[in-house]
Amino acid sequence: MGPPGGGGGRGGAFRGVDEARQRELNAAAPHVPHLWRRVAALFRPYKGQLALTAVLVIAGAAVAVVPPLLVQKIFDHALFPVHDGHVQSVDVRLLVILCAAMFGLFLLSAALNIGQTWSTASVGNAVTGDLRVQLFEHLQDMELAFFTRTKTGVIQSRLQNDVGGVSGVLTNTVTSILGNVVTVAASVVTMVVLNWRLTIIALVLLPILVVVQRKVGQRRVRIAAATQESLSELTAITQESLSVSGVMLSKSFNRQRVDSAKYREQNDQQVALQVRRAMSGSGFMAVVGVIMSSVPVVIYLVSGLFMSHGNVVISAGTIVAFTTVLARVLQPMTGLMRVALDVQTSQALFARIFEYLDLVPAVADAPDAITVEEAPGPIGRIEYRDVVFAYPDAAPGSRPTLDGVSFVAEPGRHVAFVGPSGAGKTTIMYLTPRLYEATSGSVLFAGEDVRRLVGTSIIDHVGIVSQETYLFHATIAENLRYAKPDATDDDLVRACTDANIHHVIAGFENGYDTIVGERGYRLSGGEKQRLAIARVLLKNPPVLLLDEATSALDTVSERVVQEALERAAVGRTTLSVAHRLSTVRDADVINVLVDGRIVESGDHDDLLALGGVYAGLVAEQR
Ligand code: ATP
Q1: What is the pLDDT of residues 217-270, one digit of tens each?
Q2: What's the 155 CA to ligand 1 centre distance in angstroms?
Q3: What is the phi-psi region of residue 389: left when phi exceeds 0, alpha when psi lies from -120 to 50, beta otherwise?
Q4: Which has more pLDDT, 12 or 355?
Q5: Angstrom distances, CA of residue 82 to CA of 99, 525, 603
Q6: What is the DSSP letter of 444?
Q7: Closest ligand 1 atom to the C-alpha of 579?
Q8: 586: which residues sit within 8 A by CB, 6+ positions away?
Q9: Residue 403: is its pLDDT beyond 70?
Q10: N or C terminus of the chain: which is more exposed, having fewer CB within 10 Å?
Q11: What pLDDT is recorded for position 519?
């Protein structure tokens, strides 16, 4: 059995699948309102804090529009008070009061700003965090087949790059839209109060900007989708080439140059896409900038024309105040345009995230699933009834991997599988813990079809030692406690002694606190495997699945581990796969598998006497 999510080696066809998905995603544009409803739903648990944010934002925006009104008062009533058409001397008292009020407003605005930043950052990051965990947990529920056909890096990229990419939108959008809309609305009201004619002139250009924004936004969605796709390829190459196994492979075949050429090519694509993305936004923002900055100039011009041609009087205070409000309105307007663009762009990323969240695990608990304890048969009894199994990605029309496999393992019995490579021995092991599901026929655990049992309940009763041992980059003790977090130090020593690894660990400078290194590369193959056996012994399950558990051991340690396993197997049902026939000699039943069918079945002596495939294999290994 390979490690879950190991290298995902069989994922060659995935690129094509992803491209096809991309086309589907592009075609899925009409579902956009649905998409935003889902995004909004993510904020539901934070309603209270969102309301607080809204209050702070609205208060902040409202406070920010008052100073221009005070500016008008300062100019027209305090600095240059006009009475009966004559400019009077400065009203110092009023000037001091108005300036103090303005200063107070600035302080209040700063305080509101701090509160708003805290509130926004905490809600936005909490929602991003929730989304990340939701995606992680959903992917954990996916069946093993999903991980064998998908590159690990591609999965990691959705979690890191896509969720990371929407984090900004989730954090800033609500505040930004709310704050800017309130500021713009309040400013527009202020402008109307100051002079309605000038307001119309100032706002006439807005609709053009909205149309341009929509067009640019649509272009950016396409670029963003391509960018994320290329980013996930880049992550996949990194993950595959810069892992311990990947580096070993490329070094042993001298393929570093080829690998870096592949990386460089993908990277060039990424760079080009990022530049396109930046440019498509900046062109638009430049247009916005020019239009926005020109508005005050237009106001001076139009005010002059109004006054010289029409019979309209506009005071200097009004013009100064109006352009001050305008200056204040330009920033939030530009901000709104930018948010609209970012939100539209993030649509592509959200679509990718939801696409993964919407994947339905092929192996899931039935709604009325029962636990192993509730099953009718004795715990530890395993039965396969006419099991046919084909891998989901097998070529259509090809022969199934398992073709009518039937056997019974009574509690405490050892049932072994031998046979040529590729016969389907490992596949048989996959079906008991329901890592894959039988295409037809049934697998019974404790007398109940595994499809009717709670998945975690089966796993609780099964210990697996696979062909390839997976260890975390952590200490030996931590790797062992993965199986039993509350295991005492004595428990660890006992399990390791039984697995014939304790004396090796005791010889390390840091003993059980030795870091095993990425995927256990600091240990020898045999040491890793014995550690894996110790880990399973610690779990102490009633069923053992041993897939060539002793294949990496030398003859001496094989014998010692074999004894340990035999001791451990007492009272447990054991299904084992072995190439070295010596390890299954004492099994209660040996099934010989050829091309997915059990062709011989019996104990060692029976099968030898039969003089068939088994006898032939034994003769070969002598
Ligand atoms: P070995 O003794 O070499 O480990 P085995 O008897 O354990 O072989 P399995 O690993 O069960 O054989 O594989 C049986 C067949 O199923 C092989 O032809 C293999 O190529 C195919 N196979 C295994 N895993 C997958 C998969 N994830 N997708 C498609 N085919 C697979």
Answers
A1: 788 888 888 888 888 888 888 888 888 778 877 877 778 888 889 899 999 999
A2: 24
A3: beta
A4: 355
A5: 19, 95, 115
A6: E
A7: 2
A8: 414, 566, 604
A9: yes
A10: C
A11: 57
The percentage of the chain sitting over the pLDDT mark of 90, rounded to a whole number, equals: 29
Q: Whose CA is nearest to atom 1 of ligand 1?
A: 421
Question: Which of ligand 1's atoms lies nearest the C-alpha of 417?
Answer: 6
> Ligand 1: distance of its center to the CA of 498 in Å?
31
Q: Where does ligand 1 bind, in terms of residues with CB under 6 Å?
A: 10, 148, 391, 393-394, 401, 421-427
- State the pLDDT at residue 621: 75
Q: How far is the centre of ligand 1, averaged over its atoms, from the C-alpha of 423 (Å)?
A: 7
Q: Tell me: domain 33-230+275-357, CATH 1.20.1560.10, correct? A: yes
Q: How far apart are CA 81 and CA 494, in angstroms?
A: 94
Nearest protein Cα to ligand 1, atom 19? 422
- In this structure, of 104-108, 369-373, 554-558, 588-592, the range with the lowest mean pLDDT score is 554-558
Distance of CA 428 from the midpoint of ligand 1 (Å): 10
Q: What average pLDDT does the chain have?
A: 83
Q: What's the confidence (pLDDT) of residue 549? A: 57
Contacts of 27 (CB under 8 A, 6+ apart): none
Interval 552-568: pLDDT, tens: 566 666 776 677 677 67
Of 156, 70, 171, 168, which Cα lies nearest the Cα of 118? 171
Could you tell me the pTM of the whole model?
Answer: 0.74
C-alpha 402 to ligand 1 mean position (Å) = 10
Residue 419 CA: nearest ligand 1 atom is 6
Q: What are phi and psi of 140, to 5 degrees?
A: -60, -30
Q: How far apart are CA 396 and CA 393, in angstroms?
A: 8
Residues 6+ apart with CB under 8 A from 533: 465, 499, 501, 549, 561, 564, 565
**DSSP-derived 3-state class of residue 108:** helix
Taking the domain 365-461+575-622, which CATH number applies? 3.40.50.300
Match 């390791």 to its residue by tokens.
496
Nearest to 488 by CA among 502, 474, 477, 476: 477
SS3 category, 575: strand
| Domain edges within the chain | 33-230+275-357, 365-461+575-622
